[in-house]
Amino acid sequence: MSYESVIPPSSQWTQLHIADKGGFLSFYYSDSNSVIPVRDITRLGDSKSDPNLETKTYGMFSTCEEDMRRRGVRLDIRFRRYLYLDPETVERLLSLIKAAPDKTEEYIKEIRRLELTNLQKHGFTYPNWKKKEGFDWEWARKYLEGKRFPNGSAFLAVGQ
């Protein structure tokens, strides 16, 4: 399997069809060692892999709370760290996001800086994963190879 075979759209991904055009706002742990709000990479023993700006995915590399992510895909409003947004709020937020300058490269540069900090301090970019490199699609291919995803289990691709 090549890494291109796991990049959306591909057979490993399922197109999501949202009935009411509403959405969810997700809260995540940001890194206290960063001046911009990137995921908590330097949290020893619990470094975060999502949201994953390197692959523009959310939930693909997460190893916890898979049930919460499955419920999120089904638009269930009863779970933690998410806030359901009505369609009008989603439209307003999307227009604000689209009007803002794209800072993706700045965020990825900061993620790489924090990964290097971990590597120098602990010998791994993500000590709880025992990883010596960052996340990318080649690593995603290795991670997803042989994994089975039950019906309803998913990860979300952002901006694909």
Secondary structure blueprint with pairings:
Layout: E1 23-26, E2 57-58, H1 66-73, E3 82-85, H2 87-99, H3 104-122, H4 137-144, E4 156-157
Antiparallel strand pairs: 1-3, 2-4
What does this structure look like?
The protein is of the alpha+beta class and 160 residues long. The chain has one domain. The chain has helices at residues 66-73, 87-99, 104-122, 137-144, and strands at residues 23-26, 57-58, 82-85, 156-157. The protein has a two-stranded antiparallel ribbon. 20% of the residues are buried.
Biggest sheet details = 2 strands, antiparallel
> Measured on Cα atoms, how large is the radius of gyration?
16 Å
**Run of helices and strands:** EEHEHHHE
Indicate the overall shape.
globular
Number of domains: 1
Low-confidence stretches: 71-79, 150-160
Helix vs. strand class? alpha+beta
Count of beta strands = 4
What is the count of helical runs?
A: 4
Helical fraction: 25-40%
Q: What distance lies between the first and last C-alpha atoms, to the nearest angstrom?
A: 21 Å
